[in-house]
Amino acid sequence: MPRLLPLLLSAALLALSVTAEEKTNVILILADDLGWGEVGAFGQKKIPTPNLDALAASGTRFTQHYSGAPVCAPSRCVLMTGKHLGHAEVRGNRAMEKVDPAKYTEGQHPLSENAFTLAMAFKQAGYHTAAIGKWGLGPVCSTGDPNRKGFDLFFGYNCQAVAHSYYPPYLWRNNEKIILNQNPIPGHAKPVTGDVKLEDWIGQTYAPSLMINEAESFIEAQKSNPFFLYLAFIEPHVSMHPPKASVDKFPADWDTEPYRGQSGYIPHPRPHAGYAAMISDLDSYVGRVIAKLEQQGLTDRTLIIFSSDNGTTHPGPATTHFHIGGADPAFFNSTAGLRGYKGSVYEGGLRVPTIAKLPGKIPANTTNNSPGYFADWFPTLCDATGIPKPENLDGESLWPTLTTGTPLKDRSQPMLWVFPEYGGQLAVRIGPMKLVRQNLKTKNKTPGPWEVYNLDTDPSEATDLASTHPDLIKQAEAILLREVAPNPTFPLPIPNIPQSQN
After folding, report:
1. β-strand 128-134 against 227-232: which pairing, if any?
2. What is the pairing mode between strands 128-134 and 176-179?
3. For residue range 477-499, what is the model confidence (pLDDT) as tens digits?
4. Pick from 23, 151, 284, 413: CA 20 to 30 A from residue 199's CA?
5. Phi, psi of 400 (to 5 degrees)
6. What domains lie within the chain, and their CATH numbers?
């Protein structure tokens, strides 16, 4: 028997090695403010996105997928925790340097010590984990620090506000500040009246280049280990800072006037070309990730999910057609006819281009119209990788519909958005029907009425059916009564729901 021990130990180690190499890797790619219609596979005509289109052709394209919230931080909170906005700890964008300037100089409201994240689930299952890009769920060394929320490696912007600049003074590698630009380019500036020159807004070190390099290095370093990589790119969130070479790819006649900064952020001499360049660059990063997987022989066992944290950039002042930061959604048909933009719980603020690919498991070149949203990815990725699911997740696993191609007929979990910002808003989706309520935090304390839309026949939410569906309104209120937990940090008064509930 003693002679057998080394052989048994070797066999056990070999079995563990094989198991590790056979585990499914996961790469979750998140764009920032990418509109529903800004990818070729979802109808974009002017901006080429060949890599995302190829990803869609080799996997499944979701046509009714929604973000967790209509703005950055709460959407990412829903994604990372599997809790919808009725239960999410973070329900709005909250700058911690304004809340506690003595303690924080940057970062957003932190996830609590008790918040359990998707990365923590992967780490407990033996995965190597990394978050590269924009975080926004807690300052460095806070309870929401990405290293305390399950990520072995964090590299990028901890703070959303710092991420407004593509030539920032620094990025973070875990809790170490990495200096990039001695003369950083600010993400915000006053409007200008003279010439607008591209070179005035170009710095030395371009942060997105470092982040995609880091992602490639992580994939190569972990090729023999199961890994979870969260790639939260900053494109196409303004400011518009793309390199000149990227801007020059697009036609000069697209731009007949410069953007002078009248809708905030920084000026740009060619705003249409600049915006297209950011999306084109984002597409190139996706291509580089796919190429690195192929190079390392990881393609067939790596699940790739691509989505966006919310819809395209919202309007600026009424005196200009430029949206915030110089974006022009009308020029690009960025919402593809959907109503609303970032900051709105209408479809244009929430419905996002979403793609999933895993060769041999997810059928190629398929379209799936199952309604789903960010809360669903936690249980879905657990099912896809065979790791244990925590209890009390709000999402529903999309893995059965992803692998069979059969759309979900009825969801067992509700889809809802409880958003205290931009005037206070609600949305609940029940089957094909969507109920919306606006202006819950107005000064005169007169909330807007319920609106009801049939998304099967009216995806642009043009015809309000509230007067003929009082039963649906009662059903939505019952869902909110059951699903909305108190959150004094992000309060929202909901009519007909006791104040202790919200």
Report:
1. parallel
2. unpaired
3. 999 999 999 999 999 999 888 76
4. 284
5. -60, -45
6. 23-404 (3.40.720.10), 423-501 (3.30.1120)
